[in-house]
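User: Structure tokens for this complex, please. No commentary.
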Amino acid sequence: MVDVTLAPTMRRPEKIYSAKATTDTRLLVLAPVAMVLTELVLGWLRGAYLTPGATTDGAVRSMFSYDATSLITLGTVLAFFVGHLAPVNWLRDNLFSSVGNAVMTLFGLILIYGMLSGLFGFSVSHATWTGDNGEACRPNSGACWPMVHAKFAQFMYGRYPDGERWRVNLTYFLAAIGLVPLMIPRVPYKLQNAIFVFGVFPIIAFFLLVGGVPGLPHVATEYWGGLLVTLVVASVGITASFPLGIMLALGRRSRMPLVRWASVTFIEFVRGVPLITVLFMASVMLPLFLPPGWNIDKLLRALVGVALFAAAYMAETIRGGLQAIPRGQFEAADAIGLNYRQKMSMIVLPQALKLVIPGIVNTFIGLFKDTSLVLIIGLFDLLGIVQQNNTDQKWLAPTNAMTGYLFAGFIFWIFCFGMSRYSAFVERNLSSNEKR
Amino acid sequence: MTIATDHRSTPEPAGGTARPSIASYIYQRETREIIFQVVLVVAIVAFFYMIISNAAANLRARNIASGFGFLKNVAGFDISQTWIEYSNVASYGRAFMVGLWNTVILSAIGIVATTILGFTIGIARLSSNWLIAKLAAVYVEIVRNCPLLLQMFLWYFAVLKQLPEPLSRVDGVVKSTSYALPGGALLNTRGLFVPKPEWLPGAGYVLLALIAAIVGVIVLARWAKARQLATGQPFPVMWTALALVVGLPLIVYLLLGRPLQFEYPVLGRFNLSGGMVMLPEFVAVLLGLVFYTASYIAEIVRAGIVGVSKGQKEAAMAMGLSKGQTLRLVVVPQAMRIIIPPLTSNYLNLTKNSSLGGAIGYPDMTQVAGTINNQTGQAIESILMLMAVYLTISLLTSGFMNWFNKRMALVER
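Assistant:
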């Protein structure tokens, strides 16, 4: 059973890590146990099982390799003799407070060692750094970085024409100057800022990216790809799902039974099925539902599917906020004679939305990750391009797939982790405002 | 929630004789609500009428007959993994059932595995061991913030597809190149080969012994509780139960001369033979689902344990319960109440996410339905079938969990 911290109060009183000599003999007992265990685990991982074609008799020989033993011996001796140093007390309390704890610490160290050496080996020491094609990467067991270098523009823009890529960059730039002040709580003019981001910017972005006006040649969406498609799908999904979600959430809490049923049916239906089926529906059935002869852009189909899907989840998040608003607020709004629209837009929603900002951001994170599913209906988002790249004959190498996924995964991770950190920041900010 | 008083209704005229005008009806809230709902219904009906008539016209133009008659036709395609009998001369309906079983079994295994992993990591995040807590936190932050599809691709294309072939032939000598895993399993690019259990006559008695042991444990637990309530003397139920559940079937197993044996995968001349094979697609989808969902479950578990108020733990300690007893009798039952609702939705998410398996070639329901749709053009029917199954699974699971949740909540008094 893993040791669970029950409560800070139940622990031993807080230690002051003073320069006090540790004559703890537990270290002396633990060291040999640790050595044997580490050796067994390492040997088991390395020699006994994970070698291709290993046989049982070969396994016994490779069970002990002694390099871990020497490392741990050194560490223990050092720890024992430098025992009067404060950090050692910290170590003892947090890592070696009991035999079980020490075993877990060792397990953790082995895990970290395995992961870091694997990651370092793959991405640095065994990696290929230069080359013009897959030939250079094939003999090495590490990452194929020249492939990422050569394909970088493709990963970012897809087949968006070279000469027009400044338009994509300009769009990113405009988005950044709109979003950054919006996200910093202290910056004033939030309303105007929001109008720019959600009202003006989408129109500018549409004309910049699609073109078709004098000076900006038309770029069909089939040329879009890579991170551009990921960001377009995510941001359109986010922008469209927000108002839709508010409407559905209000609908679900409406007094009118038919409105309520319609909202509940939509929300539960969409939430009950996987995004893929919604996307399939958008890509296969949407053309069927339009009058004969009409055609609808492939990207637009995906956008419709993603927006409707996200709206249902958004609605449930916002409903949570609506439910948390005390009844008195509704009654007070009624009492001063506000109508429904005024009551919701001026009293209830501002409070409800503020409460559920973390939930909304989590929905956005989910949506951002889910954009990778559009590759299944034939769009080339970041993951789609990386995936397609795996079969490129010029860069064929066994480690290409891993390199591409690590690269794409890192980009996705930066966005999602950034959003989750922001959500945590807002949450802290809100709760400190509450306390005041 | 809303207020009954209607501030908009026309004030009573002074004489009390004049009838309210039509305009006053229109301004009444009830009237407006009725008008709004009628408009909504008309709009919905018109919307569905439009899309259905358009779809009918489109289908006519493409010469596709609507209806589920096509399910009886011969499918003509193979499916790489089948739990029920299937061949390419079976019907489309049968093919869909194969996909359904693939989804259900994948989800079931996934849910069990992800629960174990998720709870372990969630508890590890609260460990007093600094290193373990940090490791668990890093795991959660990395895995949760990467798309599931990317993780499945990584497992499939970058890990499993890069494994060695089962064997190599040097100068006519066949040599195994699979990774040997503990327990006699072999891993190579063709999949995970695991020992196959063989039930010899008498295996039923082992099962019977297991059931008897479980019944015995229940009886024992009741007796122990009654005794403790009466006399205050505790009984080591945990250990006895463990001994019973493991021991009794083991004794029967040994007495009957080991009726359960395993057939191990062995190296043949051209391929591995014997054992059970789990396709690499299956393994990759499972790994992706399990690791991804576990990162969410870990957070839920952590929140659940943290959510039990400090006073409860302190009270338990004050009563002299040991750390383990506090955890088992006070913390866990209360934490479970917080944990179960979000846990349910994550089980559902896992089931729905298993539909991503199609992207790496695992023949789950979505992928089979996609193939059927490609071959027959019956897009509406295939998607309706898919959605019907997913909705049923969703409703069943949430129904079951609501029931379970209600039972847990009753403990609250």
